[in-house]
Amino acid sequence: MRYRLGVDVGGTFTDILLIDQDTGRSFRAKTPSTPHDQSVGVLSGIEQVCSQAGVALPEIAQVLHGTTVATNAILEGRGARVGLVTTQGFRQVLQIARSFVPGGLAGWIIWPKPEPLAALEDTVEAVERVAADGSVVTPLDEDDLRAKLRRLKGVEALAVSLINSYAFDGHERRIAAIAAEELPGVPVSVSSAVLPEMREYERTITTVANAYVQPYVARYIDNIDELTDGQLYILRSDGGLASAPAAAGGPVNLLLSGPAGGVAGATWVAEQAGFPDFLTFDMGGTSTDVALVQNLQPRIGRETTVGDLTVRSASVDVRTVGAGGGSVAHVPELTRALRVGPQSAGAEPGPAAYGKGGTDPTVTDANVVLGYLPTNLAGGAISLDRERAHAAVRKVADAMGLPSAEAAAQGIVDIVNENMFGALRLVSVQQGFDPRDFALVAFGGAGPLHANALGRLTGSWPVIIPPSPGVLCAYGDATTCLRDEAARTHIRRFSQLTDAGLSELLAELAETASASLAEQGVPAADHTVGYQVDVRYHGQGFEIPIAIDPGMGLEALGKAFDAEHERLFSFLLSNERELVSARASVSGPRPNVRPVTLAAGTEDASAAATGTHEVWMDGGWAEATVYDRAALLAGNLVAGPAIVVEMDSTTLVLPGHAALVHESGSLLIRPMEA
């Protein structure tokens, strides 16, 4: 069995990529997502791609899946009814939460505080107490706990989060054992396993979130596992893979599974093209995800945010805006100013051009009106109706008093580009990085259409359009590796630490994470270990994650922390530095997927041209050459205005720019003078 299958479920489309590990040849399928049951769209796509490749399901060795199931359960409020066990006196930990309100000045007046994921009536207190050093102050009263757990009949999942359990987990483990007797069949999440770190609220909300989505994710994984005969792996939020049982046990680590696949795929593509520093720009039908990658290493954050929920879970630092091909354009009566998104037409009914009953003007409709999109998408699976698109966009023109639908469509495209430019600034400029020092990898079904314009706004060159950009997230799923991590809170001032003590702590964490990966079938000889510590100045209320080598001493660590603190905040303190937490991340080997190398050609790309097409640019119609991407050779130069078409996406090259075909198959778009 030599095939790997990458599966990515988005809000509008489900992408399938089948890779022959020996030859590197790939087969693609793109089907509409099925929000009522995502597994239906997944199965349909798998059947399509297997039929196309002439491959039977038993020939697939591994199925690698990036999913939004956990994310959707949070956003749609469709998780389990969760019971919560806290230490006596901490029953209202979720209600007290943190005193942070999103929005601007006086935002608390209009912000509806979300309901906790575990209701107060489903929360019970355990008579017990553990000190910060792990010593038992009050033993666990088991008889009292049993009586309280019996009152939780009806909960579908249980979370256990006791104060200071990161220092001693004995009480939590005992409560889990008692719950298995009193609440048989109810899955239990314990905070000392989910997040063995300090800060009671963050640890509790993360554990409750894990319990909230666990039954839902477990059922979904079981359904997919039954559909496929190969080994099933799920993409984690940090870009690594987890086995199906590990993913079902820790679903809080899957909240950004979908976007992480795109970053993993972009890293693979950028490495082949020779650009280690780049921004990622993933524009789908519903939203756009952006991230920053430096030296082929995505920035990993310690928090994951989905809607109003923020949990402590490692994830690729991805920012999302409600800007996609299905984003709806509207003109509010009060302001008469054009707005685009965050509302989306989604997969059902979709843009007006899809002919499925949608009548609202969307970004896709605007691109159709401007002539940027061909009449067929997804290899002919979706036909576009230009008349419906024109009628929808005309509503915006009439509402704003514009002379034509083309002028309104240009306004829609310009606004959505600015929205996405704002997201790219969040991960670059606002993090202390100049976007002009980075390339821009654009993918997703709609990304290549807007990529050249985003490159012009950011100054990020070249703009890299990967092969099969519409299914790159699935490609990322299929080209990443298994990963797990172990963490521990260990609060010590640097004067209380030694270099040897720090190395010993990291070695213990690496051993724990390696054992977890070995249980998932990866031998120790194939493990790659990375380390990270959280450091702060003594007295600070927050810490900064710092990557560290096992041989790095405290002096070098202090200098690295000072440099990062100054980059983020432009000042340093004279306070003593303090270690807060440490973690080790262990990865398995990357899969044996060979990159494809294109045949060499000259700059002349005319052999791949299929004709010309009228496009609206700079206030008037212009003639653009249309190219078949499958016929392009390495070294071909595609000068704008041009449209490059393929099965899963369409690339627009603007006037004054040109796309060079790299031997790895990527298009490298730069201004003509470059």
From TrEMBL:
This enzyme's EC code(s): 3.5.2.14
Molecular functions (GO terms): 5-oxoprolinase (ATP-hydrolyzing) activity; N-methylhydantoinase (ATP-hydrolyzing) activity
Pfam families assigned: Hydant_A_C (PF19278), Hydant_A_N (PF05378), Hydantoinase_A (PF01968)
Record-annotated Hydantoinase A/oxoprolinase domain positions: 203-482
Keywords noted in UniProt: Hydrolase
UniProt key word Chaperone: no
Domain Hydantoinase/oxoprolinase N-terminal: 4-182
GO biological process terms, semicolon-separated: glutathione metabolic process
Cellular component GO terms, alphabetical: cytosol
Top-level EC class as recorded in UniProt: hydrolase
Source taxon at top rank: Bacteria
InterPro entries (alphabetical): ACX-like_C, ATPase_NBD, Hydant_A_N, Hydantoinase_A, Oxoprolinase-like
Name under which the protein is recorded: N-methylhydantoinase A
Organism: Nonomuraea soli
Lineage: Bacteria, Bacillati, Actinomycetota, Actinomycetes, Streptosporangiales
